[in-house]
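Hey,

The postdoc asked me to send both predictions to you directly instead of through the lab channel. I've kept everything plain text so nothing gets mangled by the mail client. Protein one:
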Amino acid sequence: MAVYRLCVTTGPYLKAGTMDSIYTTLVGTCGESPKQRLDRVGRDFASGSVQKYKVRCAAELGELLLLRLHKERYAFFRKDSWYCSRISVTGPDGTVVHFPCYQWIEGYCTIELRPGTARTICHDSLPLLLDHRKREVQARQECYRWKIYAPGFPRMVDVSSFEEMESDKNFALTKTAPYVDQGDSPGNRYLPGFPMKIDLPSLLHMEPNIRYSATKTASLIFNALPASLGMKIRGLLDRKGSWKKLDDIRNIFWCHKTFTSEYVTQHWCEDNFFGYQYLNGVNPVMLHCLSSLPNKLPVTNDMVAPLLGPGTCLQTELERGNIFLADYWILADAPVNCLNGRQQYVAAPLCLLWLNPQGALLPLAIQLGQTPGPESPIFLPTDSEWDWLLAKTWVRNSEFLVHENNTHFLCTHLLCEAFSMATLRQLPLCHPVYKLLLPHTRYTLQVNTIARATLLNPDGLVDKVTSIGRRGLIYLMSTGLAHFTYTNFCLPDSLRARGVLTIPNYHYRDDGLKIWAAIESFVSAIVGYYYPSDASVQEDSELQAWVSEIFTQAFLGRESSGFPSRLCTPGELVKYLTAIIFNCSAQHAAVNSGQRPLGTYPDEHFTEEVPKQSIAVFQSCLAQISRDIRERNQSLALPYAYLDPPLIENSVSI
């Protein structure tokens, strides 16, 4: 008689426990145990509980390969969900094997868990384990299907597949839902008292392992509801007229004042702050260093000489690398919206900036269109105060459109959704890359589904409040993706290509490079442990399928993007994974806001000592970066904290 001791941990979440009967079967190289119910005196599997059981076998099972969990009806109780965190099994010889689970188990079913040791497909030779990998990936491909949201968009999750699963319908393994204009959706409707539509059906069905936890949902409601109600009470949500005076805008921030909002209120119209935002604002990726002026911006030395001062000229400053351009070309052909019966307008500016000897970045000239001429004059700081301020305001309006639609939503939210989908569809739970990326893709599918149901839907918030509306949004994002490259995606390469490696007071660059290096070092340790050679990368068919799916579904198979469709060396894999993690965490924080700290791994998917030590080193490195940032910020008039690691969320989740 051989006795195996099981320690079962139920997650601490709301309603994580179950009243269903739980059975287990242990599968080893020498046989498998009888199916045995896990039952003790009193309540089993309560939320947050850790309980011990014994499984008796006629003989030892050899090396444990799988642990089957069977969830079945108990008496007259209704079926419910169970969040199983992990199970550890102690064999007759005292050997402990950990089986990570960390998932919701719905209804009555059987799931199979593998030991926590990460393994690529090249490490498995037993038919049982190879078949398990195949069946697991196939099941997830049935659950997570791609959808074409709009032509030229990255593919995204088809939430209707979750509804089909709930209805026990059958559907194709790799089916891609075609593009359907949401304008005809009967579920896209107005909520009482609110001026925009919400696509309610798409919010009702979400696979339990990607939806918000109860705590996350409560936090979102707690933060969003008071602000929305406050805007409603003060009439701002229903406002259809123009602002009467600039001070009226203060009403928006009356209950949400921060040091930053107050600083902006005091300095928003100053040229110094205007230039500062290109370096350390929410869209710090627009600047390109110029060696010569483009033909479409005919600025002359005489125009800017009063600002440059004596002893230099425009050509000299170009040669010194002190002239920069922010070009909003992408807005030139963007469709425009009609709001409350009034035609809206969009500028496609060219903004020339100068790095002065004191290290301040100042606007030098603004042209609000892409074609020079009488209809598109060049505005200068020497113009009248209100002309110059109005020109800068149009630039900030264009900045908002490019930032929110492309820098923020396209390049973090939508691309990270594609990474999440490919990871779920192509990599089994035991794969080291799956374990590595899982914390950095948490909640992304949920938050993007909410965005599509409330912001991007026809007559949603984007249609109701922006000058380009939903049509313009689709145009901007599809055009942006068509020009997005692997160089843009990788921070060091992007900074080098834009010629901004030496510009002073560029805190986004300085902090971002430190975090990139920390992530790269961490990823290098993980990749080096599981992929010791070029062959180990090239022969991992699951990894190659994952890369290929990202290339075809996120970047639409566009070779000119420079994104890889195949990886050949550990070095290529390190760079690719570093860029994904950086953009899913730090980059999103830099262009949005932070919440769940980068480097936090509450679920122990890696059970080996080497990756666990690598995580600890990574966390220590991030802690040092945080100390350095906070020390520097003490001397800044406006602290730059967007990339302080404790303020960087692990994933795109808001």
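Protein two:
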Amino acid sequence: MAMAMSDSGASRLRRQLESGSFEARLYVKQLSQQSDGDRDLQEHRQRIQALAEETAQNLKRNVYQNYRQFIETAREISYLESEMYQLSHLLTEQKSNLESIPLTLLPAAAAAGAAAASGGEEGGGGAGGRDHLRGQAGFFPSPGGSSRDSSGPGEEGKQRTLTTLLEKVEGCRHLLETPGQYLVYNGDLVEYEADHMAQLQRVHGFLMNDCLLVATWLPQRRGMYRYNALYPLDGLAVVNVKDNPPMKDMFKLLMFPESRIFQAENAKIKREWLEVLEETKRALSEKRRREQEEAAAPRGPPQVTSKASNPFEDEDDEEPAVPEAEEEKVDLSMEWIQELPEDLDVCIAQRDFEGAVDLLDKLNQYLEDKPSPPAVKELRARVDERVRQLTEVLVFELSPDRSLRGGPKATRRAVSQLIRLGQCTKACELFLRNRAAAVHTAIRQLRIEGATLLYIHKLCHVFFTSLLETAREFEADFAGTDGGCYSAFVVWARSALGTFAAAFSKQVFDSKESLSTAAECVKVAKEHCQQLGDIGLDLTFIIHTLLVKDIQGALHSYKEIIIEATKHRNSEEMWRRMNLMTPEALGKLKEEMKSCGVRNFEQYTGDDCWVNLSYTVVAFTKQTMGFLEEALKLYFPELHMVLLESLVEIILVAVQHVDYSLRCEQDPEKKAFIRQNASFLYETVLPVVEKRFEEGVGKPAKQLQDLRNASRLIRVNPESTTSVV
């Protein structure tokens, strides 16, 4: 009774949990209110856990049952597919046989019927007429010709058996196109390695009247095989292998320059293989010999049909000759043409795009120089519908909705088949659209690092590597097309660089990085862009065009920072010599000035750690030369005037301050010190700036020459004591 109550409680709990209005939070709240303590909650928890485990077991059991049913269903579908192939081939064969009955039999049969009727009237019975007709039928030519006579009445059955068996072998449909070929013997074999006698694989042998087909087993598809090899009998030698237990019931096939060893199921089957192979080879040799003798025998003169063979035929009743062009017809009765639409459907369903396009090429080559009667137009209409379906599938393969993994090579299959279908423009458009989505996704998924330069290195590597791979794949896929596709690629590359420049500017310029960091980042981008020159693609000018506005803004911003700092130092200028306190500090300053290009800084140093220059002038020199060095890393022709004007503005601030101080200072000692600083600016700093600018740009700057040659840049009122800065 307790067990019954437990089962009823579990079922009630299950129904409660499975109800559509179940809310976990409300259920736990009610359970907490109704429970007497922790023990009740633990028991309820155990019941829920047991119910969960039971549900999981039921789910696993259902999944296993469904999986078994799925496997059985797939196996039945495979069998049904094979049977449908066989049925389709049998129907096609029957149709071909019916269509091959000569139309000449109809008037001959009518004439024989009339003769039988007259003979019956004269002979007084119908049986004699029927016997006469049966005897006359033997004189009509059979559709099969001499091969039918030589093969006997069982050839059609043998051909049908061959067709049925070979339908189960993948990749050997070309064998069905050989006329007069039929199956002689077949059976299972096991192949062994010739050197070490190790078992290799299970195979199935099909012995035809002129060749031997070897097919391997497909374990996942019962009763199906895959084509392995085909050996003509006239170049095949059979050798019996002596039994050496456990190696027994074996025979060897010799095909120059290779050999293969097979094991039969038992000694009887081995003996049958050896006998039937020898007999078939002998029959083939005899057949070839007869054919050669018949070909060498002289032929009689051709029979000429006289127009006067019927003296009762009226010349007026003769039908006018039909022109040969009108009599020309297109033979569409071949098996591969009849099955072409269905084969295309199978190829599309199995994603065998190459096979589908191969079939279309074969049809186009066959119908290339032939007329277009209604039958051909109907066939083309059916095929065009499959071409449309194939194109849609290929377009979907290249759509950005598909997986973008695998790089540009993953699109080669669909692109090449679209090009073969004459859809070169569409293939180019879809390929570039797919790669644009891939580039955008790669940039978006790139992790933003704390260090800007590290992120830019990763960004450039990802983008330019992808661009280089896309360019190489594009060149490989569209090498044989017109030049319009290459123009489309250049336009696409310009658009892709726009995406890259947007991500680059957002990280470098929008975050207000220092000019030195921005210069290093731009340098990295230029170096990666120059790698595209290896494939003949130069996009450096596009990078310049996309980044020129941001670089101009960075130069202007840093120029303003230098000017403000210089003005601040000028406002606190006391015109005193610098005391660096320690020799190490003095040596460090000398190295800094040497790196700035000031080679004669020694003459401005005094005793101990003194420097005969103002702190303001020294700081201005280091800051100006640093700005020039970083700006030259960013330089390209579009920035020439921006950089030059920024330098002139920065230098003017220092020169105007020195000029104003000379005019206002009354102390002779300080005035001499100011003149020494002015001499350092005009005779040392400005020539270094001018020389470094010319080295970085490649041409001198007239504005800097004029600035250096002028003794005073700005004329002020001698009586004025106010600064013009």
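Summary for protein two, as requested: The longest helix spans residues 38-99.

Thanks,
C.
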